[in-house]
Amino acid sequence: QLQLVESGGGLVQPGGSLRLSCAASGFLLDYGVGWFRQAPGKEREGVSCISSTGDSTNYADSVKGRFTISRDNAKNTVYLQMNTLKPEDTAVYYCAARSGYSSRCLQYDMNYWGQGTPVSVSS
Question: How many other C-beta atoms lie within 10 A of the C-beta of residue 42?
Fold first, then answer.
């Protein structure tokens, strides 16, 4: 059973940056990992996903050019660097993992989920 723990969320002003971390209890090398978010009153959506080896990534159109996903398999950790944050990025951000290589970013594919970390972008 893989356990995922997110950290790094918080309150930031528009235009600011945050880096989220997702630490796994086991070896992440066998898993594709993704970040998803759920804003108040909205459905959860995919933000970005990365393949198990880190050589393939996917981004939602709304975050392309502003967010960067990366991973350090030696540390069993995946990161989401978020720059130029906007109020519409406000949400609870979840880390999720699926067995296998793929960077496909579909919620129903994911086998394991973290508890989420809140991000609030406001002046």
Answer: 9
Task: Please give the chain's pLDDT, 123 residues, in tens.
Answer: 899 999 999 999 999 999 999 999 988 899 999 999 999 999 999 999 999 999 999 999 999 999 999 999 999 999 999 999 999 999 999 999 999 898 899 999 899 999 999 999 999
> Could you tell me if 114 and 96 are in contact, meaning their C-beta atoms sit under 8 angstroms apart?
yes
Give 119's contacts (C-beta < 8 A, 6+ positions apart): 9, 10, 12, 18, 20, 37, 82, 85, 89, 90, 91, 92, 93
